[in-house]
Amino acid sequence: MKIRDVNVIVCSPGRNFVTLKIVTDEGIYGIGDATLNGREKSVVSYLEDYIAPALIGKDPHRIEDIWQFFYRGAYWRRGPVGMTAIAAVDTALWDIKAKVAGLPLYQLLGGRSRDKIMVYTHANGADIPATLDAVGKAIEDGYKAIRVQSGIPGVKSTYGVAKEGQKYEPADADLPTESVWSTEKYLNFAPKLFAAVREQYGDDIHLLHDVHHRLSPIEAARLGKSLEPYHLFWMEDPVAAENQQGFKLIREHTTTPIAVGEVFNSIHDCQALIQNQWIDYIRSTVVHAGGITQLRRIADLASLYHIRMGCHGATDLSPVCMGAALHFDYWVPNFGIQEHMPHSELMESVFSVSYKFDDGYFTPGETPGHGVDINEELAKKYPYKRACLPVNRLEDGTLWHW
Ligand code: CS2
Ligand code: MG
Hints:
Blueprint: E1 3-11, E2 17-24, E3 29-33, H1 40-55, H2 63-73, H3 80-101, H4 105-109, E4 117-125, H5 128-140, E5 145-150, E6 178-181, H6 183-201, E7 206-210, H7 217-227, E8 234-236, H8 246-253, E9 258-260, H9 271-275, E10 281-282, H10 291-303, E11 308-309, H11 319-331, E12 338-339, H12 347-350, E13 351-352, E14 356-358, E15 361-363, E16 373-374, H13 376-379, E17 391-394, E18 399-400
Parallel strand pairs: 4-5, 4-12, 5-7, 6-17, 7-8, 8-9, 9-10, 10-11
Antiparallel strand pairs: 1-2, 2-3, 4-15, 13-16, 14-15, 17-18
Helix pairs in contact: 1-3, 2-3, 5-6, 6-7, 7-8
The protein binds D-mannonic acid and magnesium ion.
D-mannonic acid is lined by residues 37, 170, 210, 212, 262, 312, 314, 316, 339.
């Protein structure tokens, strides 16, 4: 079997997605997500100009060798653009291999380790009452785990919280918008928010919270400590992780579990975090962490240190990534939870999916491959539209975050 065609499909059914399609000389094809929110076109170029020409004629079954070829062969290792491109190739090749075998992808990884995959969804509101309503709605929808974010009194807009009357999408403008951040107002407010949620909805529902890298280690330690009475499932991205050692200080001060890794693209980004047991969950996922081939290496390393997987699953990760991630989650022994920020109906008309949601849990489906496909004709109706992520400044104008 040989690779005959490699196509990059860019579409925007409500938001931008980049999809790689690898076609073999036997007609079987595989697809992979290559979406890097706010920097989509860079990955398109990486794939079209450098990877696609070198893929033609290769044996698609040699997934490991092809991964190493593009990782080592570029000379310039790691980085979000290159690793997203490699992830897309890897996902498409796993899809092909599973289709050839006539098996759902999780069977090739070693079979399922659980009956169903617990996911968490988002509940956010402009203030505490609106956020409480959103939590109630998520519970009604069956979710057993909910990420809670709220607007902060005295702070004009907060990342992770929808603008009034709109659905939350992080990339919200043609050029980056600027918002203002106050660490002190946030740290004073967060425990009040979680006290209100526990008061209204009790102790059994899992609660999560995303800090979006806004704090320093000692500030994050204070936050973790102040949230201990509300026993969070996790506190996510408390500080930026370029300095992995920063997590040591947080760890030494609080029992609130820590999750990090949605922006990581390499196993080396989390090597010290894992080996020192400074975190509890690793959030890297298929599309940004080099595909299934690297993600399972990360998971295996993490499993040696009691760390579990909690894959990123915001809407800017396409249904193709979600499908592949759910196969991974079904297999991975040290699974923790999977994020689920639902795609719109329009998105799921362009991408057909085999995965199913039932009462707070997903199953990946039994379709051979990862079970997600793209309708290329329909995709053409929704052309790319540049959309950037916002930036943050402190009240004195300092560009944030750490
Ligand atoms: C967030 C994301 O889902 C999350 O945990 O941090 O909304 C993230 O901001 C976006 O995926 C950025 O592209
Ligand atoms: Mg996050």
